[in-house]
Write a structure and sequence with these properties.
Blueprint: E1 3-12, H1 18-35, E2 38-44, E3 47-55, H2 56-67, E4 72-82, E5 94-97, H3 103-113, H4 126-143
Parallel strand pairs: 2-5
Antiparallel strand pairs: 1-3, 1-4, 2-3
The protein binds flavin-adenine dinucleotide.
Flavin-adenine dinucleotide binds at residues 10, 23-24, 27-28, 31-32, 41, 48, 50, 62, 65-66, 68-72, 93.
Length: 144
Amino acid sequence: MNLYRLIYSSYAKSDLEYHDLKAIMQKSEKNNQAEGITGLLCYGDSIFLQILEGDRTVISKTYHRIALDTRHHTPELIECIPIESRLFGVWSMKAVNISDLNSQQVRNLILKYSPSTTLQPHTMTAQQCLNLMQALAALYDKAA
Ligand code: FAD
């Protein structure tokens, strides 16, 4: 397998609701499991930041399908690189809803990896996005 990691960000549609997020996660878990995709989806400040790991052709197809989804817009591809191993091997799509976390801790983490206190991936490098997402996922696990 040609193992790759793809990172992108996008803007949620203005009237996105909790049931939309739930539906996206349910569909992602089902499809990704069947296609050997793993990863992480962060949502906060009306922004999505997602990592997809898996076979290059498969994650490319999935990204292009996701990009057409009207529940978000203006996707920006941040990174698509070959990797030695997966970071999210046990998760077909782990979800982190930033509003479920302690807002001060989230702000501190965002400040650590970006020039802003709100999630603004367009101001961040791919490595900063990756570090932030891993830190948010760890915070999420700790809070659970
Ligand atoms: P179906 O679920 O049958 O959908 C058919 C079509 O209808 C698709 O074009 C779909 O985009 C569209 N659609 C379905 N429900 C809605 C709705 N409520 N509003 C608008 N359009 C809708 N999918 C994955 O497989 N893996 C992922 O990791 C993944 N991550 C996502 C992250 C984000 C931020 C978003 C917004 C969507 C994500 N999706 C993901 C969903 C993806 O965009 C497609 O909706 C899904 O993959 C289509 O699945 P399906 O082929 O079984 O078609």
